[in-house]
Design brief:
The protein is α+β, with helices and mostly antiparallel strands. The chain has helices at residues 5-31, 68-98, 104-110, and strands at 33-38, 43-48, 53-58. β1 (33-38) and β2 form a beta hairpin.
């Protein structure tokens, strides 16, 4: 299998190129900002591509609402949707790099996810 040193050098070169592309993609993903809303825009959450919450906007009308549980539910819903969008963006970046060579879900682990 490795009786051709030139082929082995080529394989390592391609692996190094892929590693560099993945590192660049990780930088791009961490700079991405993805937002999602819940409650017809009453709560909006923004996250980075690497799943860091950067902003939460809450419609002031909810501060006078008596139902704090509704506000909590809207924050959870918007956060989960924003994280889902960030994960989809990351998968898109990885697919652009790897083509059909690698399952994008496997790359989720590389970026600190669970792979599910």
């Amino acid at each position: 299998m490795f009786d051709n040193p030139g082929k082995l050098t080529e394989i390592f070169s391609k692996m190094n190129d892929l590693k560099k592309q993945m590192e660049e993609a990780q930088k791009r993903v961490s700079k991405m900002r993805v937002s999602a809303s819940a409650g017809a825009g009453m709560v909006t959450v923004t996250v980075t591509g690497d799943n860091v919450i950067t902003n939460i906007e809450i419609n002031k009308a909810l501060f006078t609402a008596e139902d704090a549980k509704m506000l909590e539910d809207l924050i959870i819903s918007a956060t989960n949707e924003a994280l889902k969008k960030a994960k989809e963006s990351m998968a898109h970046e990885m697919k652009a790099i790897s083509g059909s060579m690698v399952n994008p879900e496997d790359f989720n682990k590389f970026f600190g996810g669970t792979g599910v």
